[in-house]
Write a structure and sequence with these properties.
This protein is of the alpha+beta class. The chain has 8 helices and 16 strands.
Length: 287
Amino acid sequence: MANYTDIDDVVGSYSDFLKGKYPEHGRMFEDRFADSPASARAEAVVFSLMQAMVGHVEPMESLSDGGPDFRCASKYGEFVVEVTALDSNSVDLKSEWPDNGGSYRPITQKIRAAAKKKQEQLSRAGSAARVLCITSEYRGAGGLLGPLPAQLVVERTFTDRKNGEQPHPDVRTISCVVLAAVRANDLLLCGAIHPDPLIPFDPRHMAGVPFYVGGEAHEWFNGRGSDGSTVVRKPEARLGDRATGPRFVFPFVEGRRCRRSVSAGDRIGSCRRAAAALGRKRGVVDP
């Protein structure tokens, strides 16, 4: 019997977790699911990912005035995470993504706009490093949020090209950006580390995720070295003819765990039913 989940299971499990340990946040999550299912799914998936990678994760968002979504702690210290989901219809219009291969337009401006919009929320993190996780469920997200876009985050969002390539003052509150393509059963991840943030982020928090750090050597770190500075080559995974970040199969969140039999394909669907019930309760019909 192998344990693994899909996106519906993760949402249901996360909802159960919040209702059990943080009931006020659980109600807020239900409201978010009703208003924006994609944003709610992104929150659940990123929580699951952080919990698997760093161990201790707790909701941080203030019920009254917002702030970052999660506070995380590993043996390398604390950091906070803010999650934002890109609208698939808008991504489709901006990217002109071709289903059968061919050219497309990067969504650099959308990523930059998301970073600027969230920097104020991340500024409420105290002395902890600040991580912005930008997600998308769009069918071309693996390429649109892959290694090249991560590189462009450093070179065009974190850096002010009009000011002699100096760090852009508007986004110094963001220590790093993680780009996450959300698929049915897994994530494709790439990161970008700010060259001069107010508070640096240690990539060892998220070992295995490739982070672009720029510089003359255009280096990528994967956080597996003792000092977090293991240099790796540019990620080589492919989506058709387009580079993507490495694949991370959905982990579990604390609390109820879903199981699927590999031999029979039978699902014990407690988490799936919880996700479906959440949608019915809020009157959500998600396309």
